[in-house]
Amino acid sequence: MPNDRPTAVVTGSSSGIGRAVARRLLADGWAVVGVQRGAADIDHPAFSAVPYDLSVGDDVDRLAAQLGTPRAVVHASGVLRPGVLGALQADDGSLMWRLHVDAATRLANHLLPRMAAAGGGRMVLIGSRVSGGMPGRSQYAASKAALVALARSWGAEVAAQGVTVNVVSPAATDTAMLADPARATTAPKLPPLGRLIQPDEVAALVAFLVSDVAAPITGQDIQVCGGSSLPR
User: Model-level pTM?
Assistant: First the structure.
């Protein structure tokens, strides 16, 4: 892998937003380590795929120990398991918490102190506009809302060392998650924009947040919502 490129770790890089982020960062001159369960379909000399199941805590710790000190970490791995009151599944809630929150926490626990010691770095967590609450999404919303509190807390701890931590929260995005059979009975709601958010649009914001010029921005939850969050 070219050693003149800054290194970014991108989780969930085999599909959806994670793949779009990995491709965008490669185009911007980064070396990307993609952490993913699916097969790698990115062919680039500065890309390397690392197969890991981030829902297994001990695996995340082992992974983080191998990653050195990247310049940026983007946690895009995610899963959606909808459920209404009376039909909520504990296993679904546990899976989403482990993948969204626990994996982010373990990665941050290892990597943010290294970034701080190195004098700079970026972490971006992919959240969701649903984090404010939505019928049929309570467990998913709770796990995504937790990311906002974590980012604000971590950002405050490492701001003085040049490290930023932010959340990017898209509305319904055109990814394979929308076709997941687990959500077949719950169609996505289009934002006022009139179409789904595109993964490349989310990736463009992530690319800005991991850049040098985004140094003053930390602890923020930035929504890519197509107008969904506006008063109506």
Answer: 0.91
